[in-house]
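Researcher: Re-running this chain for the archive, since the previous output was lost when a drive failed. Same request as before.
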Amino acid sequence: MIPNIIEDRVDYICFSNTALNNYGIWDIRPIPYFHPNPTKICRFVKLNLHLLINGYDYVIWKDANINLNKPCTLWVKELIDKNKNLGLIKHPIRNNIFEEAIACKELDKDDARIINKQMSFYSKDRAKLSKSTLIESNFMVINFSDANVKKVFYNWWKELNNFSIRDQLSLPKVLCEWNIKIQYLLPSRLCVRFSDFFDYYVHKD
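Model: Regenerated structure tokens:
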């Protein structure tokens, strides 16, 4: 996908093991990880950006089915101006991981036994996690110059490896463990599907 906005100060990096047209824009890199579940391969890239991309203070993650209508430099500037280290979007419908776990099971997003095991493990912190904001993690602005942000991603991958591939179930738990300054990038109940800042395309089966 060609970016809607192309900026000279931005490097455009795509991780894929499939031959793709780079349109003279994308730096297409192989994924140094294999798993029989392709979703987990995608999660490996997303949760290990601090290891896969070196030399950048700020990294913007977007899922492949999203295009940006706001310049990357302005997303980063928002974090800098607000003195925050991680830009996230709240889930537009559900409030916490326990509500999300129910939805994931109803929609058959992962093995219900794995999700139940994860929620059982998290139940000891239920009071705190019930108040921890559920994140829709298809778009993030990340300050990797902050050591604690790197630790969040390291531990996020660790949680996902131990439990469900639904990364939204584990991120709030990890965020509760680290003092990360978060900037919420959109108003509550608004997400990339309905914001003018994004073009959103439905995933092809």
